[in-house]
């Protein structure tokens, strides 16, 4: 026989669920305004004469009211949908045809995160009765009738709803705070939205057209999956800042309502559904295309902190096509020569047909030739290319019967130049670099043998390169390092007379404990850029294999990786009578604990704890011709077990790209995706107020991992930005550290108190739908 009934403190449960589902206590603003907007869409769908829709938000002390003149509700709608969590009056064909934004039926819960009383006044379209309903949070009960519904004595003059929220005295809601939070969600609505009588909607996200621009005009795109119209605007100068507007979208013969407006000048890609803001979308773009994706098919998560994985994948496909379109448009104009993004795109996608306007130097002069104009013979002179760096050698090879082309210092540009010349069958005029002597082990000092042995181990273990030789030699042209291919084998030669490696000999003799990590740094910064093209991990096939591995692992972590989805599923089971409220509380609490990250002053350590104390700051003179933002491998310190969550240094270290602070990734991400960071990758970061998002892209550009920090405490007023930073990932035995840009160093360099934030992450495969 049962002795006691199941009981819960419903107000505490609501506090827990609200904090788990919603990203901020201010979410009640977004959820109430979204309900008001949906109501207007539904009325507009029913009433073709509905001409003056409006939403009015009023903040007066601790009272918040949201008024709309939309479809409204009667007593049955209030009871069945508004006050029943998980039930929505918008899950029907008519509502979907109207283009409603919300369908989860949990929006009213957002109010109970900060309110003490909730009241609703509503009049359903086509009826004469105004209904009043409400409840105090303290009176909420699962067993007793606690919510009143009655006919109002004061009848509304128009259809619609007014929600009146009494805000808890523990929470201060100001107009400025409401505006900063709400503006991204409502600014593009065509419906007027007023905040204390100030209009905060009806902005435009259209293309920005200036006098000094190149306009593609409206063109049409079609492949096996997609069909749409597009227009590209390019700034005819530096930077190019491409823009791309996509309209009339058809996907697999199904019309997608909405449009997309992308701008390289924007810092965030933001998703809208029927013009109402949803969430940022983490998708990588070679041309840094951000802006607005306004599609009716976008599906948000219950708390609107992101769009669904399926929606992200769909947007990723469109952004990839947009990159293709922008690349083709830039390539038509001389501006292509100065577009580093286009150069990265051409190299990554092997689209050397787009390289016509990229220039190549003639000798070591200021004269250049466009690649499209390069021929085997120009003005009666035979054209060669020269890969060496010696001006003296180049001068010795020149005469009046030839033209000698040389490669640029920029990594991507040089790669493109060489590939195009090979395609055009331009012959190489051999550098007269000579290997005068290769030393055997008996002729070398012990320190030199140690350098060769340890370098070989690092290359084999860290980079999986085995088909190579390593030797000391006498090399002409005062070169310190020289690579040559011999019957498919890479021969890496160190000049014995060079002083470039004297510091390694010193470390070997005086501080052997640091010897291996110094070798690792030398290989990463000086050798890797020279042999990177021979690594399978930098190819599309390498990315495909890595992605397949993640998919295999994902099956093992399906339940554990659930952030909000499992709480939502449990809620559905509870409403169906399959789960108890305690089940929901346990899942919510467990998720919140495992996703929460904290940093305090004791969590901050020194970079030297991982990398050791350098004998002296090193300037990487051999690496000046390498693009600092090219895909780079991590700094490996797998012998170090680090307890710190933040590493800092005050030293200027060129091997660390002058980064002063490194932040540890979450332990879950380390476990799930450590293999990704072992591969060469690029690093991009965007930040603004309460959010920081990192994008790490595989060297093949076919796989991107995003890592999002939702901060409890804002970065600061007007602290926002986006940039590509040199990859300086540090991997230890138990942690992965990523670089923090200077703008955020003071924020993460915790000296007192505790810094808390939630993290989210996932991988996105950059698929190719081109026919």
From TrEMBL:
Keyword ATP-binding: yes
Pfam families per UniProt: HATPase_c_3
PANTHER family: HEAT SHOCK PROTEIN 90 FAMILY MEMBER
Family matches, as Gene3D superfamilies: Histidine kinase-like ATPase, C-terminal domain (3.30.565.10)
Organism of this sequence: Parabacteroides absconsus
Keywords: ATP-binding, Chaperone, Nucleotide-binding
One MF term in the entry's GO annotations: ATP binding
Name under which the protein is recorded: ATP-binding protein
Domain of life: Bacteria
UniProt similarity note: Belongs to the heat shock protein 90 family.
